[in-house]
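Researcher: Last one for today. Full complex below.
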Amino acid sequence: MLVAPLGIAWFAAVALVLLDGRRARVGWFAVAALGATLAATVVLAVQVLQDGTVRSVAGGWPAGVGITLRADALGVVFAVVSTGVLLAALVYEVIGGVQSPTFPALVLFMATGLTGVFLTGDAFNFYVFFEIAMISAYVLTGYGQETRQIRAATIFTVVNLLGSVLFLIGIASLYHVTGRLDMLGIALRSDDVGTQPIILIAVIIFVAFGVKLGLFPFHFWLPAVYTSTRPSVAAILSGALANIGSYGLLRFGADVLPRELEQGAPALLLLGTVSIVYGALQALSRNAASEVLAYSTVGQVGYILIALGVGGQIGYASAVLFAVVNALNKTLLFLSVELRGRLVWLAFVIGAFSVAGVPPAVGFFGKAALFRAGIAERSVILVALIFVGGALSFVYMFQTEQRRFWAGDADDPSPLARRGLVLLLAGLVVALGIWPEPLLALSEQAAAVLPERRP
Amino acid sequence: MTLLTSLTVAVLFGSGAFLVLKHDLIRVVVGMVLISNAANLFIMSAGLTTGREPIHPLPATETIADPLVQAMTLTAIVIGFGVAALLLSLVYRVYTSHLTVDLTTLGEAEERAEAALELEAQRDMDVEEAGLLFARPERERE
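Model: Here's the assembly. Have a good evening.
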């Protein structure tokens, strides 16, 4: 069961490489394969949430020798969300006509990489799947083949490659000091090793994930890339690929190196704060909608960092919840940003409400969870910061909404099917906002996987 | 030996970082290749044991080198190779569309593109303001 989502996506991707993805039939085959992957992931998720963590060792080796695949609540939540986002972006492109023969195959490869990252229990295997996802992302950024997209792909590749190399160095160092590669083993052994070497490794790994997420000091590549790529690719990058960063911080920070996370908490809170304020102010000062969304992404990941810095079950649960909500918001907004028509306006407004954290959109619960974490931390500054950040995002989202939609639509509305897809996503955002219990329970169960360190 | 390896890794990584900051995209790619090779060497040196090659049958008396880091390095080399090829093809695409691989010239092109983007957004805003005051009624009259 554990390998089913991986296998479906992988074999479909290999088959799709041989086919011309521009044909509608091939495109719909890719959609069907990704749909099957999503279904398999959901089945796995239900199994995991009912019966607890599923483990298997690849190749029938004894545990400790072979590569462990491990599906726990935290991993499956991220796997389901990322595959769902990829599916939405793929359907969006297939409806409008795919322009490059390799696009569907690349999306499937990325689904393989992302599912693998979320379902592996081995640090080096994590790196391998992570590279599969990243390499497909490098190629996808150039999708459209226009000059600015190629330029964006070059920036994206060079910067993120540096991040990947740092991560690889971090994994090798962890192996050297603990003698293990499986995450469970590293977590057990790292308690015996002194803080001195491990805190340095933790910083290297944090920087690597910070580059992927686009946190404040490492965000410089993000606006150039998000504004130049096509909307569907921007949705994939911010809705699916960025999950690697949030998941990686949760997994390596809270699960594998909890002691180091606690020591680094003040730095996380500080960087998160700067990220939120900087992202919001930059977003306020931009005119183009895609640029506003790009800077908004920089701001939104700051919240995840703050939730991690607060720590404990409350902090981790709100980090998971906020990561999921943010992925949904950004997918909806990036997909709707270039469409025209009244229904698109409705979808965009719902997305804007969700980013600002206004009910009935699901974003409200993301912000509410953060407030709860701030209150649990007994920090007035944190609560004030989350409030100010929310207010600023309200202003910049509606500034964009005015510029984008109040001018009246001179052009004809976009294809009905695309508008329908965006509305469907908006409907999901509202539905989860009206009936949030499953999502809240899910995030709490995901956080329960992580060891409790602080009250 | 440890000192020699760490010095090699440091020099490789340093030269790579130096080249990545250059204004020529080909140098940037070469720099990335150097950096990923520094990482490969680093993984090799992270092995827990040193000694004979770990090939079956294992020698009874001597220690063997850690086979795990070698497997890891092999994987990392393959990934690094693939990414280097991808980077080169990207640089080639940049060259065919800009006829240059110099980052200063490319940066100017980027600035022009951004200025166009801002101009477009500004025009949308103007249309919006005009639209609210005058354009709407006229369009309706038509």
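Chain A has a mean pLDDT of 88. The CA atoms of residues 273 and 302 of chain A lie 6 Å apart.
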